[in-house]
């Protein structure tokens, strides 16, 4: 007989397995990376293994070690000496040398906040007292954000792949099997509302319905905003025009009859396993480099490009959101980059007659 007040060890293991399966691969990878960094930093700073619960002073030390602040004025010249952190240079160098950091110096503010959030989540899952919820920690993080904002520091955004640079990227896709795959992938991701790389990697033929010779409907079975896989009308996306033609050309050339739409191509033109989300990112970056378009691009550039182009062409906000799947108007407006605002009539009122 089971005790209704307690879970058995087997039930706990099953619950954890279900939670892991429900999480995206990207989430698991980012959480793992953050916790590995915490363990490496703690070992270097305190000479011991990281254990939970982590004391509040340790979290505060982590923040001041990684948050850049203005240095005190030089005692001789009276001039500020730039931005500094409390992380000792030898530890900083060791973290970089061992692959826990990509470069010396303070990480991006978003990276710091994410690592604090991951530690907080780890304490919640372990049902341990959470140091990240301590008022001192929360106030320090809040003031750190304000300090960064006062210095004019903004999160770095990938450049949006709007229509013109996207056309240049598509021109690099030739009639080889790889070229047809990449063209179909790029157009599918962009034209269906700027799909995320995980959504592109998990796209299947079973969810693609051909309506006629020039159009398809794609059902987005799982997404960031529909992780339960509920059936919703708004998850049916049109794939028409050049995007539909590229998809048909890829399917005809690849011979795919079921399963993943986009797959690895091995030597000799043989299809391999489904593409991973990271491979989608690599294809975008590689094609952008081949096209010679300037800027920093990633898979997210397709999503940002779709929304930005919609703003440029004065598409309706509800229709744009229906395609992207955004629920927040504020979030969508954040994608309307400066270049889309240049064509605004409101900004030219003084010059209009």
Short description:
The chain is mainly alpha-helical and 353 residues long. Helices cover 50% and strands 7% of the residues.
Widest sheet: strand order? 3-4-5
Biggest sheet descriptor? 3 strands, antiparallel
At the fourth level of CATH, the homologous superfamily of the largest domain is Intergrase catalytic core
Q: Assign an overall shape.
A: globular
Q: In CATH terms, what is the fold-level topology of the largest domain?
A: hpI Integrase, Chain A
Account of the 3D structure:
50% of the residues lie in helices and 7% in strands. The strands form three sheets. A three-stranded antiparallel beta sheet has the order 3-4-5. The protein has 353 residues and is mostly helical. A hairpin with a 2-residue loop joins strand 3 and strand 4 (215-219). The radius of gyration is 24 Å and the shape is globular. The chain folds into two domains: 11-150, DNA polymerase, domain 1 (Orthogonal Bundle), CATH 1.10.150.130; 163-341, Intergrase catalytic core (hpI Integrase, Chain A). Helix 2 (25-46) crosses helix 5 (109-126), helix 7 packs across helix 11 (277-291) and helix 8 packs antiparallel against helix 10.
């Amino acid at each position: 007989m089971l005790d209704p007040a307690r879970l058995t060890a087997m039930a706990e293991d099953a619950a954890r397995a279900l939670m892991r399966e429900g999480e995206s691969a990207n989430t698991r990878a980012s959480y793992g990376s953050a916790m590995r960094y915490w363990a490496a930093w703690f070992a270097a700073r305190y000479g011991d293994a990281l254990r939970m619960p982590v004391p509040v002073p340790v979290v505060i030390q982590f923040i001041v070690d990684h948050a850049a602040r203005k240095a005190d004025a030089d005692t001789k010249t009276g001039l500020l000496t730039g931005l500094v952190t409390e992380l000792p240079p030898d530890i900083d160098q060791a973290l970089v040398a061992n692959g826990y950091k990509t470069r010396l110096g303070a990480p991006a503010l978003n990276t710091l906040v994410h690592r604090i959030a991951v530690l907080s989540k780890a304490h919640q899952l372990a049902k341990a007292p959470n140091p990240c919820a301590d008022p001192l920690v929360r106030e320090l993080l809040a003031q750190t954000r304000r300090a960064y904002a006062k210095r004019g520091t903004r999160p770095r955004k990938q450049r949006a792949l709007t229509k013109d640079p996207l056309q240049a990227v598509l021109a690099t896709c030739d009639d080889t099997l790889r070229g047809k795959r990449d063209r179909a992938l790029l157009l599918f991701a962009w034209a269906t509302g700027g799909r995320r790389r995980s959504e592109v990697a998990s796209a299947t033929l079973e969810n693609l319905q051909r309506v006629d010779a020039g159009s398809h409907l794609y059902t987005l079975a799982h997404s960031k905003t529909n992780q339960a896989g509920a059936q919703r009308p708004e998850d049916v996306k049109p794939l028409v025009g050049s995007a539909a033609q590229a998809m048909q050309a890829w399917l005809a050339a690849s011979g795919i009859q079921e399963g993943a739409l986009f797959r690895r191509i091995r030597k000799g033109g043989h299809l391999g396993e489904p593409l991973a989300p990271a491979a989608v990112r690599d294809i975008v970056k590689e094609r952008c480099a081949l096209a010679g378009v300037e800027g920093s691009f990633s898979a997210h550039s397709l999503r940002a490009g779709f929304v930005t182009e919609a703003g440029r062409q004065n598409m309706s906000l509800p229709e744009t959101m229906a395609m992207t799947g955004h629920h927040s108007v504020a979030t969508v407006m954040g994608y309307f980059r400066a270049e889309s605002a240049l064509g605004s009539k409101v900004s030219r009122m003084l010059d209009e007659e």
